[in-house]
Design a protein that fits this description.
Layout: H1 3-20, H2 40-48, E1 54-56, H3 67-73, H4 81-84, E2 89-90, E3 102-103, H5 104-107, H6 126-143, H7 151-157, H8 171-180, E4 233-235, H9 239-249, E5 252-259, E6 265-270, E7 277-290, E8 296-301, E9 313-317, E10 329-331
Parallel strand pairs: 2-4, 6-9
Antiparallel strand pairs: 1-6, 3-7, 4-10, 5-7, 5-10, 7-8, 8-9
GO molecular function, one term: cysteine-type endopeptidase activity
Keywords: Disulfide bond, Glycoprotein, Hydrolase, Protease, Signal, Thiol protease
Protein name: Peptidase C1A papain C-terminal domain-containing protein
């Protein structure tokens, strides 16, 4: 083969390779953040992939989102090492007998907050949602106190110690805020964007709400509405310890890396297949199981309303630290501090 023919063959090979890799270079990988996050070629790539294990589709929640807007709601920032200094790591005995399948909604049916699917809107407040949701669930599990706590308090009042509010934050700092400052009820300080992103004027993004430290409801006092955690801790990064923590104490907050294909998740056990890195996201882990195809998974509740995923939930492969999801697990225990337990039926397993 002559040099000219060889060069032509190599050029043809490059063109063909690029054509095959086309779906991998969709959206962000092309450097165009103004494109829509939902893309037909990504859906096609997932649904035609023989080993995907999950189904992709057009999620109505992101119908009008650009890649730039999608990136903004992924509000978990890389945690500075200094913030983790002194934070204990929780482990559990290997002798704990764990079920093959577990769902916190079924385990604690009287705790309605566990099954709530919320909406963070256009604010990068996932780090706060994941923390608040887990703490209120644990108030019910351990103290028999059914209560909705305020994401708004955390986003607007924690300040630079937690990050940058709607521009992202650190999950472990949210739990430290609970221990130090407590968090008021959602009734006292409701989330500033009650309509999510279903209304006009919610783009490109909301700015962080102002911290007012004043209840919206008359006759409620800010300091009296504060609910605290006893502690803030990491959970050791292996499936047994994470499962034992959820089984023993309730849902935990987890952080993971989100890729373009995750926006298209509809059902099944997610694993990253295609698309570029979008950012870090925090959600609530509520259980685990094994699919009919034999894939072990984690069960999680997202805060992108029920117009995304499997009615707001998703499963992700368990035991391989997929997207780093087993490496960023944090939690804390509820405290009876500032609470008059005579008004509640719980026995008070948490301590001051």
């Amino acid at each position: 083969m002559g040099r000219a023919s060889l060069a032509l063959s190599l050029a043809l090979l490059v063109v063909l390779s690029a054509a095959v890799a086309g779906p991998q270079l969709a959206g962000a990988a092309k450097g165009d953040s103004s494109l829509r996050i939902l893309q037909k070629d990504i859906i096609q790539t997932i649904n035609e992939h023989p080993n995907a294990g999950w189904t992709a589709g057009h999620n109505p929640y992101f119908a009008d989102y650009t890649i730039e807007q999608f990136k903004h709601i992924l509000g978990v920032k890389p945690t500075p090492p200094a913030l983790l200094a002194g934070v204990p790591t929780k482990t559990h005995s290997k002798s704990i007998d764990l079920p093959k399948e577990f769902d916190a909604r079924s385990q604690w049916p009287g705790c309605s907050t566990i099954g709530n699917i919320l909406d963070q809107g256009h604010c990068g407040s996932c780090w706060a949602f994941g923390a608040v949701e887990c703490l209120q669930d644990r108030f019910c599990i351990h103290l028999n106190v059914n209560i909705s706590l305020s994401v708004n308090d955390l986003v607007s009042c924690c300040g630079f110690l937690c990050g940058q509010g709607c521009n992202g934050g650190y999950p472990i700092s949210a739990w430290r805020y609970f221990r130090r400052s407590g968090v008021v009820t959602d009734e006292c300080d409701p989330y500033f964007d009650q309509d999510g992103c279903q209304h006009p004027g919610c783009e490109p993004a909301y700015s962080t709400p102002k911290c007012e430290k004043k209840c919206k409801v008359q006759n409620q006092v800010w300091k009296q509405e504060k609910h605290f955690s006893v502690n803030a801790y990491k959970v050791k990064s292996n499936p047994h310890d994470i499962m034992a923590e959820v089984y023993t104490n309730g849902p935990v907050e987890v952080a993971f890396t989100v890729y373009e294909d995750f926006a298209h998740y509809k059902s099944g056990v997610y694993k990253h297949i295609t698309g570029g890195v979008m950012g870090g996201h925090a959600v609530k882990l509520i259980g685990w199981g094994t699919s009919d195809a034999g894939e072990d998974y984690w069960l999680l509740a997202n805060q992108w309303n029920r117009g995304w995923g499997d009615d707001g939930y998703f499963k992700i492969i368990r035991g391989t630290n997929e997207c780093g999801i087993e490496g960023g697990v944090v939690a804390g225990m509820p405290s009876t501090k500032n609470m008059d337990m005579t008004y509640y039926s719980g026995s008070g397993t948490a301590i001051l």
